[in-house]
Amino acid sequence: xxxxxxxxxAAVVAPVNRRTFGxxxxxxxxxxxxxxxxxxxxxADEDGFRTDVLALARELGVSMVRYPGGNFVSGYRxxxxxxxxxxxxxxxxxxxxxxxxxxxxxxxFAKWAEKAGVEIMYAVNLGTRGVQEALDVHEYINHPEGxxxxxxxxxxxxxxxxxxxxxxxxxxxxxxxQTGHKTAEEYGLLAASTARALRSAEPDLELVxxxxxxxxxxxxxxxxxxxxxxxxxxxxxxxxxxxxxxxxGDLGSFLASAVDMDHFVNxxxxxxxxxxxxxxxxxxxxxxxDEWNVWYLSRFQNAPLPSEWGVAPRVxxxxxxVADAVVVGNLLxxxxxxxxxxxxxxxxxxxxxxxxxMTEPGGPAWxxxxxxPFARTAALAKGDVLETRIDSPTYETxxxxxxxxxxxxxxxxxxxxxxxxxxxxxxxxxxxxxAVDLTAFGTGLTVAESVTLxxxxxxxxxxxxxxxxxxxxxxxxxxxxxxxxxxxSLPPVSWTAL
Length: 498
Ligand code: AHR
Known about the structure:
Layout (H helix, E strand, L loop, with lengths): L1 E5 L5 E4 L6 E3 L26 H10 L3 E4 L23 E3 L4 E3 L5 H11 L2 E6 L6 H12 L5 H8 L10 E4 L14 H18 L4 E4 L12 H10 L5 E8 L6 H5 L1 H22 L7 E9 L2 H6 L7 E2 L10 H16 L4 E7 L8 E3 L5 E3 L3 H10 L3 E3 L2 E3 L2 E4 L3 E4 L1 E8 L4 E8 L6 E6 L13 E3 L19 E2 L4 E3 L3 E6 L3 E4 L1
Parallel strand pairs: 1-22, 3-4, 3-13, 4-7, 6-12, 7-8, 8-9, 9-10, 10-11, 11-13
Antiparallel strand pairs: 1-17, 2-16, 5-6, 14-15, 16-20, 18-19, 20-21, 21-27, 22-26, 23-24, 23-27, 25-26
Helix pairs in contact: 3-4, 3-5, 5-6, 6-8, 8-10, 10-11
């Protein structure tokens, strides 16, 4: 089998947005407690943060982290998590049926974010709360000084405001499972009035309205349309959430999950632009794909939440395999391809909960298979995203119809002259010979590096005992070039960065 990719430095989609490489820390399961935070752990620093996890978060190349939820945020009282620790209340978290100790709140998370070198994306509670509480938490986080809540922050040790720029107006309020679930009409009005109030406090905030929780929601598209009819002028983004898994052993469909992501993005861009046209607006609403990943959601849905109200229970700690990593690499290809409109994204989540980083309490931290395509894409995608013309054989899938065997995206860094191609082979049995035509870049090109994630066993995983079973290795067979075209062989079920 053969495939062909042609690239041209003049055919630019958009600059690579660093915010494409966002992640997500929710107060859920062991993401915060025994994830990023574990005082008493041998690697814990003076603030109780695991430095092994911090080092892995930096290596992952995460640029921005959404906090504190997720479904959790829709019942959260932010003020529970500030001030002296011994006075902080323990509360029920209805979303995940667990106990929130509030040992970590915004002040601690801001410290962690600074150490990790990431931007904070903050989500306010629009489930059980409204405009006033959103204004309050904004005053605490961003107001410089001289008001009740900014002085409270200063008294709690943070003299300077945190300067959080990007704010989510609630979480998944289209979902009946969400505490405080709303109709599109109700949410659209609330999102618009919250956005207006926040803008009165700080005009240049970037505000994200909730879009659909998945493309299979019955209100998909209609929800965004109604919400944006109300909030178009006062928000900058609409969110998208999508989780993928292999259903009933249908690996072929699963490997083509990015087809659904492409469809999701194209549909919501079209919907947002249609609202803009109706409103005679020249403004464009961008997409914040602020929850995406592989998640074996059906396993979670078939197993009830724990009956005991515990602290930091083990919830959705999916162990990822080679196929999952190939899909994650492909989802990043899709996000990059849409860099003109998807200008923020968060892989959900960062640690333990459907995460690239796993930890054991008191024990080690390790990289799941999905860590590798994320880290390498974040490191290598620089400069501009190029239009990537792909000529590929196809295959039939039950869920997505006819899908290309090869999917790819390329970036070009004009400053260094480097071109990177990210490419997956979705075939389960055949290698594909790929030719990348770089004639438009001139002659004399050399190949700096080509690494591939693949394995004879597509179900192979990394575990505590074997943390490096699946990793990136030099592309087998090497890469040939005549100075203008590069050729290589892509093994079945593989992700490659060239
Ligand atoms: O990331 C796990 C959960 O998935 C989040 O809390 C929620 O927003 C989504 O349904």
